[in-house]
Amino acid sequence: MSEHGAPWHAHIYCTAETRAATEAMRRDLIDRMHSGAIPRLLFVGQLKDGKAGPHPIPQFEIHYTEEALPAILKLIEASGLTALVHPLTDDDLADHTTLAHWIGTPIELDLSTLDPPGMNQGVARFARSDF
């Protein structure tokens, strides 16, 4: 990953009340990715209804490198949506807990689904696929 910078994820959560705003945010991110408006935004996943991995409510994930982090943070913070932003390391648990940054009200994750330290399968999925 060194030629592209350190990998990062953000999970943007969706409730019944925020569905329209979440869908609009996803479309906006796709547009910004395709236009190059946010360089190094590499992947925008599907909005997953229900539980996906450690995420107990609907969400979609985005993949980007550290260079895009300031633009991503600004966009999510301005949206008013809840999101979990974290680096992608070989420690899945740390990525979703001690290394994570919440925007909005944190959501309790199901940590039992995460890979053991040193075995983060998300690394192989970076910029390729979501859950």
Automatic annotation (TrEMBL):
It holds the Pfam family DOPA_dioxygen. Keywords: Dioxygenase, Oxidoreductase. PANTHER family: AFR070WP (PTHR36423:SF2). InterPro entries: DOPA-like_sf (IPR023389), DOPA_dioxygen (IPR014980). Gene3D superfamilies: DOPA-like domains. GO terms for molecular function: dioxygenase activity. It comes from Rhodanobacter lindaniclasticus. The lineage of its organism: Bacteria, Pseudomonadati, Pseudomonadota, Gammaproteobacteria, Lysobacterales. The keyword Oxidoreductase applies. It comes from the Bacteria. This is Aromatic ring-opening dioxygenase.
